[in-house]
Fold this protein.
Amino acid sequence: MKKIGLLSDTHSHWDDRYAEYFAQCDEIWHVGDFGSIEVADRLREVAPLRGVYGNIDGDVVRHEFPEVLRFRCEDVDVLMKHIGGYPGKYDRSVWQVMRDNPPRLFISGHSHIMKAVFDHRAHCLHINPGAAGLYGQQPVRTLVRFVIDGSEIRDLEVIELRSKR
């Protein structure tokens, strides 16, 4: 069993609540637009980090993280790409993979809109964790936590990072 912390679109912003909410996670996955390698370094202090670069990431981040990452977590085939689209509207860069060899879990970012939806055509869960950083028009910053236990994806939790008052 693995507890996963998932975030995207930090755009160089660090919030101590990332560490707080991900402290019990076995891994953290960042789906691009880190904005700076310092965000990655701080996440690594909390838990092992996997990630992909996003469209705003510079050479340092791109040197360390790939554009697309496909891997197994427990018994779940996972595909991550920053700009990936949604079921029924996949980005053309992943459309053929999603048609011919879909993963069990597809994770993308970029839109700044948190969404978790099952793609019945691809038999695949799609998650976009929304945006954890300050940049963008999203009404609420979000993080996601979930569990992968063998072949089961469960206990999906959306965490809203409201402004501290």
